[in-house]
Amino acid sequence: MKKAVISEAFLQQVESLQMLIKNNVAGMFGGNRKSKNYGSSCEFADYRDYMPGDDTTKIDWNAYARFDKLYQKLYLDERQMHTRIYIDGSRSMQYGDNKKAEQALKLTAALAYIAVADMDKVSVYVIRGKELEEVFTGIVGKEAFFREVGKLDEIEFYGDSEISNAILPTKVGYGDGMSVLISDFLTDDNYERAIDYMTDKKRHVFCMQILSQEELKPQARGKMHFYDSENADKVYRKNIDKEIAQAYKLALSYTIDRIQNYCMARGADYMMVSAEHSIAEVFFGKMVDMGVLK
Amino acid sequence: MRFLYPLGLIGLVGIPILIIIYIIKNKYTEQTVSSTYLWELSERFLKRKKPISRLAGLISLLLQVFAVAFLSVALARPVFILPNSANDYCFVLDGSGSMNMMQGENTRLELAKSEIEKVIDDAKDGSTYTLVYVGETTGVVYEKLEDKKRALTLLSEIQPTYLSDGVENAIVIAQEYFNENPAQLTYLVTDKAYEGCQYIELVNVATAQENYAVSSITYEQNGDNLLSVRTEVVSYESDKNLTVAFYLNGSETPTATKTVQAKKLIFTPVAFDCEDLDFDSLCVRVQETDALPVDNETVLFNAEKENEYTALLVSDRPFFIQKIIETVGKAEMTVKTAEEYTALKEEEKVGYDLYIFDSVKPSVLPDDGAVWFFNLSESLDKTGFSYQNTVEIESKSGAEMELVSDGSTTAMALTKDLDGKTISFSRYIKYGRMRNFTTIFEYEGNPLVFSGTNDYGNREVVFAFDLHDTNLPLKMDYIVLCRNLLNYSFPTVVERVSYESGENAKINIVSGCKNIRIESPSGKVSYLDTNDESTSFLLSEVGTYRIVMTVGETPRVFHLYSSLGEGERNPTATSETVNLQGQASSEKRDGKYQELIIYFICLSLLFLADWGVYCYDKYQLR
Known about the structure:
The complex is a heterodimer.
Chain A (H helix, E strand, L loop, with lengths): L7 H8 L13 E21 L11 H7 L3 E10 L1 E7 L10 H19 L3 E8 L2 E10 H8 L14 H5 L10 E6 L8 H9 L3 E8 L1 H4 L5 E7 L6 E6 L1 H24 L3 E6 L4 H12 L4
Parallel strand pairs in A: 3-4, 3-6, 6-7, 7-10
Antiparallel strand pairs in A: 1-2, 4-5, 8-9
Chain B lengths: L1 E2 L10 H12 L3 E5 L3 H6 L8 H25 L2 E9 L1 E7 L7 E2 L2 E2 H15 L5 E7 L3 E8 L2 H9 L10 H14 L4 E6 L4 E4 L1 E5 L7 E3 L3 E4 L5 E9 L4 E9 L7 E7 L5 E7 L6 E6 L10 E5 L1 H4 L2 E6 L4 H10 L2 E6 L1 H6 L10 E5 L11 E5 L10 E8 L6 E2 L1 E2 L5 H6 L9 E2 L1 E7 L4 E6 L2 E8 L5 E5 L12 H14 L8 E3 L3 E5 L4 E7 L5 E4 L5 E5 L4 E9 L2 E10 L2 H4 L7 E3 L9 E5 L3 H23 L3
Parallel strand pairs in B: 4-7, 4-9, 9-11, 10-39, 20-21, 20-22, 22-23, 23-31, 32-38
Antiparallel strand pairs in B: 1-3, 3-40, 5-6, 7-8, 12-14, 13-14, 14-17, 15-16, 15-18, 18-19, 24-28, 25-27, 26-29, 29-30, 30-31, 33-36, 34-35, 34-37, 37-38
Helix pairs in contact in B: 1-3, 3-13, 4-5
């Protein structure tokens, strides 16, 4: 089965969009984003006294003629943003004809492409149990993207995932871009710690919750024996009637509200995506509406 | 309990099927979901379930099982046995003429039927009903019938009669059923006051009712132009002054009316004078209204007039024949010479009841009446005999003919009262006979007087000589022979015109008779067999019967009157006893209860309840 199939026409459309970053970031590498530090971009920022050893090409000779003193022109530094995408690699992402996993990979590919198109650095990880598994890291430029994007197809979804335990031990960078967390978040795992950790690191966190149609509107009725896809020992056996269906809706609403409210409180972005949605709908609709893209 | 249609219980197979369906339907469906997290979390939001919800499926199954069980049992038509609660009933219903008597709005027969209906209605299911009807003939209408509705329907279809075969025969039948089951309850439903009924419950539907009657009419000629008509009237219930009217020839206006003081149960004579000697009918009627109108009048028809017929005599010397026919016959004679007859048109040669050809050969044999031939010296088609030769007796004193009889009924009738001696003749004709004829006189084996039927089936009489060549016309035997021959060839159709209902009326069949149609007083039409010389039919009604006999193309109409029998006019006057012999038993038969309505009510309730549970379970109606 071919995953992360994103047409070239779609990628061209996505390319035309710019990632909207709320604040300038202090990246390690140059890029198209403005840094809080002074650098070598063409955009003038300020003057300072010339000090020996400074770049003589940036002395403002007009100011020297007027004030007879050497001033060094300072420019805003354009740093590279490092977009880190974390994919939940658990088995539950395969539920619903694999559409959740496909959706996750498509979103990953699209976000990565947008990042590299903006001269950002992109890293993609798979959360596998308590560990992070690198898919590709630090790729820059479209050439590298197209070289590496095929690795997304090789991602297998199995086992479970512990988002916090996997992310907390890793370097997530500091103030240098966006961290995208893609998962169904149908877990008791304390993923809030991971969000806290990344926001503390001045990362812009973007949580994408992918749910299948069967999870959003389950059709099961009557006597059902549900097996948990991640843990065969976990079962739910019940006569699904209208009361339980109502309770399920409340539980779903509670789960969505929980992560959404938490993200809002931490200044993170949150978006719920149906596995049935097309990438175009997600990017041109939801993400533009939310201001993530412009 | 037993079942009328045990095959209906096959429906019980539906119960295990239902249970299997229930088990299959209620098996947990296994399914893998991405995570049971949301389902488990939903438990926190689940309201406490009502106990009925958990049992809904089971209740539905139980209701359906009960419904299938009830339906199967209902189809099998269960019959609950109620020991010793039912009886065998035997009803003897009197349907004689007196049961036509009105009592209030209904006849006695209708009251009798309603009495039986009450008993049947009140009887326990499982009882049997036997109905013996006493009417024209006594017979069993139904026996040991368990179906109440059928019994009541057949009872309602019983029609009144004017006859009674006698209750005795019905009691004999009831006795047979009683012998089979001494516990049988026997009812005699009648209007007659029987005494000393043993093992028979008498249901007398009669109450005192005024009833008058007229007995049969007689008349005699009183002087040259006067008839004295006599009859008797009676009042059965009380002394009464009765107005008696006399009607002539079917007129609606009475010719004379008389008031008669009739003593109870005493027949009081009434006489009227009638100037019409050639009357068609005489009728006497009591004018007062009573409970039984059918015996309030009586009619007498003129039999002689109705039996008249027409005859054509073709002879050049008709004296002997004409006189004897006019004397002993009832014919309206037309006499023609041979020349006159030949000159007649063809349509004028037909239409007679009797044709007599004396020494004359007709061109064709008439096909619409009896034919007599005298001295026919030529052969004629379809007569059944042929001319051979004429024989002259050489002796001057002639020869004597010999009276013969083959012993048959016809021969006996034809030779009745004949002496047959010293009848001489001088010449005769030899005929060859092609079918069986009855010979009356013969000479040396040659038939001289014989009779039979021709090819048209009409009666035929042949004299093989000329009357003028014998001394027969001078003999007493001539009168007797002609009377016998006339009676044979043209018998009196209706010899008697007054009967009592229940009697058989005799009809003599004349030559050329094609059919006999009988119209009863109530308008019922029937046809009689015309193959024999006479026939008869039962007079089952009271009133005037009309008999239409088609002879050739001509219908001849006769009437006779059937009056109500004396025994039916005053049914209360009896002291007879009716008993069943043997020893009655009190052992009853088992009753039954087989009402299905309770099953249908239960079924309806079960289906309704199941539907409610289904809706509750499916749509959570609450």
